[in-house]
Amino acid sequence: MCRLSAITSSEYISPMENILSLETMKEGHDGSGLGLMLKDLGGPFKDLKDFPILSTICSNKGVEDLTAFMRSRGFAEKFSWEPAIKNVPGVERRDHYLVKVYDYPAEYRDKPKSEKEDLLMNTRLAIRKMGEPDGSIFAFSFYPDVLTLKEVGDPLQLGEFFNLDKSDIKSKIVLAQGRQNTNYAIYLYACHPFFIQGYGTMTNGENTAFVPIREFLMGRGNPGYMGYNSDSEVFTHIAHYVNRSLGYPLHYYKDVITPLKEKEIDTRSDAQAIRLLKRSLRPLCIDGPNCVIGFTPDGSVFMVQDAKKLRPGVVGGVPGKYGLMSEVCGLDSAVPQRDKSTDIFPMKYDMVIIAPGAREVTVWNQLHA
Amino acid sequence: MEPASRLDQNHKLSLKEFPYIIRWREDRCTRCGRCTAVCPVKAIEPAVNIQRTVTSEGSSPEPKVTRRLTHVVKQSTDIERYCIGCGTCALVCPTEAIFPEYNFQHKFYHFKNKGGIPYMRGGRRNDPSVSTLDKLKFTRISMLTDPALDAGRHEFRIRTLLGRNLSADHLPIKVEGDRLTVDPNVFVPPVREIYPIRIGSMSIGALSPHMWEGLAMGITYLNEVEGLPVVMCSGEGGMPPSILKSSAIKYFILQIASGYFGWDEIIHALPDMIEDPCAIEIKYGQGAKPGDGGLLQAYKVLGLISKIRGVPQFVDLASPPTHQTKYSIEEAVAKMITSMSMAWGFRVPVYPKISGTKTARAVLNNLARNPYAAALCIDGEDGGTGAAYNVSMDKMGHPIASNIRDCYLDLVKQGKQNELPLIAAGGVGKAGNLAANAAALIMLGASAVDIGKYIMQTAAGCFGDEYNRCNVCNLGKCPRGITTQDPKLYRRLDPDKVAERVVEVFKAADVELKKIFAPLGRSTELPIGMSDALGVGDKDIADRLQISYVC
Ligand code: SF4
Ligand code: SF4
């Protein structure tokens, strides 16, 4: 089972904290990959919050192609960052782990946010399309204040490889996932967390309903609903679809992916609406043992799971710092000073939402909403 | 030496030409006469034979010839009285002295066109080969990467939706604060939550009153006692007014077909109806006899039927192959769907049923653009019928598997796979594998499946099979009392026993569906279109259906 570690904090933290918590949750072989997604960035990115950040892995040729491409699209480079790679046995080093901050093309600077977001997504997709056939460029995210690092290997070793303990890369929200056991020839685009227009999520558990969900999403007319090298990518896109495209409040994500039974719906004051939703979005019911942890563009962080999840995730912490983990030992590592009796193990009807700035934890109960 | 009688028997048929040959054992037969009395087609009759015995007693041969008369059971070689292989004779024989045997070398079809009238029958396509549906298997088994579910203990929700599901962006939903509300002034099409296996259209004229009653009691019990929302379609020909006006009407889908039989009664009952029917099915075609209208032969148009249908007794009731209002697909479908919807104040889902065809996608795309179309039912070539020409049954139509798959994938392309449910019919449970066939069709993209012949076979012991056994449903001579209006015959069928079997069949299928869905890890929603769970050991089928080839 993949290990998930998310931390949301009012202070800037190092992603190394997440990697250490992943390490405590390790059970057996774990070389299949690490994904880190950082939001609300500090360090060198602290003053660049309004500018989109492109996170990539490029070959030497990829860097040239990318530079030419971004120039042709009118993106002016403002800042560039690469982790100071330290060679570690067992991790195969690629040419460049390139993170670049751009200014919008002139004609987009005054456009509404949604148009800018569409531009960023379409640009990322175009880069992906350009670099995917020969593996010269992998583009993971292109959005203001979000940075993604991914590589195949053991998370702790990768932490060393990216030199994260010494790096000044910090953020207030970190999602980290370590793939465990079941994947060998891992493809970088199959590595969690996944990102689309401000939404980042990671999941554990196999997604049994993957094919119908993927087919449904691909029919929504959004070019960003693509990829699906991992069956978990759909969870990110569902969150985006429900919250951004349809404009429903975040907690309806729970109603969509794990809908109530007909009788239970009657207990809700918005029964009529969710009955309609349940029918219209029937193919998005995940129907599998999954735990989803993610963030939304406003910096809310959430955890939600299906009733079939045998080992539920856990949320706990202190005001100003909360961890959302797949195992309680990960939480012990990340926020040891918390009162453990207040830990939350979200039950089948629960969705835990932590407000931006790690201020407040809400357990939204689907049955009693 | 010249024979005493002519040897020239040309223009007569030998038993070898017949599909079933009666094996009769003289040594066992007690001459009770039951078999000849019960034979629905008079294929056997008592006859007298002269038996010549030569005996010799004493030390030197002194042959003595004796002739005596013996009674035998003789099979007719009259093509009009061919043995249908039903086996009713064997059923009633107290000494197991008689049974029909299939004759693989028969030339029955060569001769069954006397008077220039092609062979007509009931039943299904006479093709005993393994169907595509029966070749499909479920190859995605969760174990360690994903916990398999316990079919016996886990809670499963095996339900489907019948009706037009609006896409989320067309729902009249508004965001108010952090809640969603519904605008009550906007029309939302009716949607029913039903069991994904339905009893397909079989009319009250095609079925005997006892059979129909048994099925109706069975589904009512399933709904009201077992909590399984199984629904049944009336077929063409209306319904008894007592049911139309009862609350049980909600378990029924009313069918309107090109003959509009029975609709006078239905329209008259409308003001007194206390519940809405589950749905309205507009029949444009039938898998067993594509391009042909419904047919109830005169033999079956007796008292009750003539009353419900509003026609005289003993006349052939042939529905035209198309609806008379049909000038174009747009007009036919849109007009009928809208007018049927209007009759019930747009509270009842209305959908068409067509026979499996290469052109199904054209119909589908027309429906996809009609916001009132509630579903599309496609009836494949293995569907059954009460009466049709053999050529229509055996040679016309389209297999259901690829038809449903193509339609589903077409909807996927348009992103409308959840909006317009597809209902698959024709050959479900052909070889007895009801749940497996249903699950396979669901994974290919069907939202529900219909059964007909299967329920006749399992609930009432219908003799029919793909070797043309029995299949005289059209003649009103059904030896089981299933498809006849002759009280002498349908008295044999106990409606309570039929109902009991209907309940057993659905309960068993429900367990089997769970046994299939549990290892796939699915329990909350029906795995519609979960094609990655399917595999087949035939590369061509795998390619055609876009599922995995396994060996
Ligand atoms: S099998 Fe049926 S049709 Fe044939 S002789 Fe027996 S009863 Fe008659
Ligand atoms: S038993 Fe009745 S219903 Fe079955 S094939 Fe024979 S005639 Fe038809």
What does this structure look like?
With 369 residues, chain A is α+β, with helices and mostly antiparallel strands. Chain A has 2 domains: 3-40 and 169-365, 4-Layer Sandwich (Glutamine Phosphoribosylpyrophosphate, subunit 1, domain 1); 50-144, 2-Layer Sandwich (Alpha-Beta Plaits). Helices cover 26% and strands 27% of the residues of chain A. Chain A has a 6-stranded antiparallel sheet, with helices on one face. In chain A, strands 9-10-11-12-15-16 form a 6-stranded antiparallel sheet, with helices on one face. Chain A is globular, with a radius of gyration of 20 Å. By secondary structure, chain B is of the alpha/beta class. In chain B, strand 12 (232-233), helix 6 and strand 13 form a beta-alpha-beta unit. The chains are: A alpha+beta (369), B alpha/beta (551). Chain A binds chain B through residues 182, 205-206, 208-212, 215-216, 218-221, 245-249, 251-252, 258-259, 261-262, 269-270, 272-274, 276-277, 279-283, 285, 287-289, 308, 310, and chain B through 140, 142, 145-147, 149, 157, 161, 165-169, 171, 173, 175, 178-182, 188, 191, 193, 412-418, 520-525, 527-532. The structure holds iron/sulfur cluster (SF4) (2 copies). Residues 20, 22, 39, 41, 43-44, 83-89, 100 of chain B line the site of one iron/sulfur cluster. The site of one iron/sulfur cluster has 14 residues of chain B, from strand 1 and helix 2.
